[in-house]
Amino acid sequence: MVDSPCFYGTLQAIEAQGLKALEIPTDPHTGISLEALELALDQWQVKACLLTPTFNNPLGYSMPDERKRELLVLLKRYDIPLIEDDIYGDLSYETPRPRTIKSFDSEGRVILCSSFSKSLAPGLRVGWVAPGRYQQDVMHMKYVSSMSTSTLPQLLSPNLSPPEGMTGTCEKCAATTDEAGILCWSGLSATSRREHG
Ligand SMILES: Cc1ncc(COP(=O)(O)O)c(C=O)c1O
Q1: Can you tell me the mean pLDDT for 151-157?
Q2: 87 alpha carbon to ligand 1 midpoint, in Å?
Q3: Which of 12, 50, 90, 118 has most ligand 1 atoms within 8 Å of CB, for mutation?
Q4: Which of 26, 50, 54, 57 to mutate to test the pocket of ligand 1 (most atoms within 8 A of CB)?
C-alpha cells in the first residue's frame, strides 16, 4: 500500500518484485488519507505499507505528528508493517527535525530506511535500515540481493558509530545501536555531532 502520487521508484521496486501496489488518496498538506486507508484495509489483504511521511516526494508534505501517531495505531489494528522511507528527513531547516513514525513505535512494527543520497552524494550508494522486528528478514534480503554493500563507499561515508559509552536508542527515530549499527545522525545532540567531527 502506497500513497498516491508516490515516488516513481517505489512503484518500480514493487513491480520488480512481482507485487501489486494499492494506491491511497493523499492530501498535499497532511499526507495519506487515514479514512481511505481504513476502508482499503477493510477490503484488501494488504501486506505492507510503504510511505515517505516526512518531506514527501513528489507532494512535499510532512504528516503532522498526530497523523503519524494515528497511522501507526491503524496499522497496529490490522497488524501491517510500515516501511518508512525517511530519505529527506535529515534535510530539515529546523531543529529538531520532524519526528519519524518509527519514534512512536514501541513494538518494532516500523522498518525505517534512509541513505546519504540526498544529504551527501547519490553516488555513494550507502543507506541504512532500522528494521525492528523484521531484522532477520531484512538481513536475508540484503544477503540474497547484493550480499553486502562494498566497503570503500562505507568508509567514505561519515562515521556515525557512537563513541564508546554512547549507545542506546536514538531520541528522534528510535533506532537502537544494535538495530541500525549506528545511532541515527539526527538523534545526536549538537555537541555529540561536533565530537563526531
Ligand atoms: C522518496 C525517495 N525514496 C528513495 C529514493 C532513492 O534514493 P537512492 O538514491 O538512495 O536510491 C528517492 C530518490 O529520489 C526518493 O525520492
Answers
A1: 83
A2: 7
A3: 118
A4: 57
Q: Which CATH number does 2-147 carry?
A: 3.40.640.10
C-beta neighbour count of 105 within 10 angstroms: 23
Nearest to 141 by CA among 152, 129, 150: 129
Query: Per the structure block, which three cell numbers stand in for 71?
Result: 497511522
pLDDT tens digit sequence for 73-98: 999 999 999 999 999 999 999 999 99
**pTM metric for this prediction:** 0.84
- Tens digit of pLDDT for each residue in 167-176? 556 555 565 5
> Does the beta carbon of 117 lie inside 6 Å of ligand 1?
yes
Percent of the chain's residues with pLDDT above 90:
70
Segments of the chain assigned E as strands: 2-4, 23-27, 31-32, 49-51, 82-85, 110-115, 127-130
Distance from Cα 10 to the centre of ligand 1, integer Å: 8
| C-alpha dist (Å) from residue 3 to 7, 129, 144, 183 | 9, 21, 28, 28
| 150 vs 139: CA distance, rounded Å | 15
Domain boundaries, the chain: 2-147, 149-197
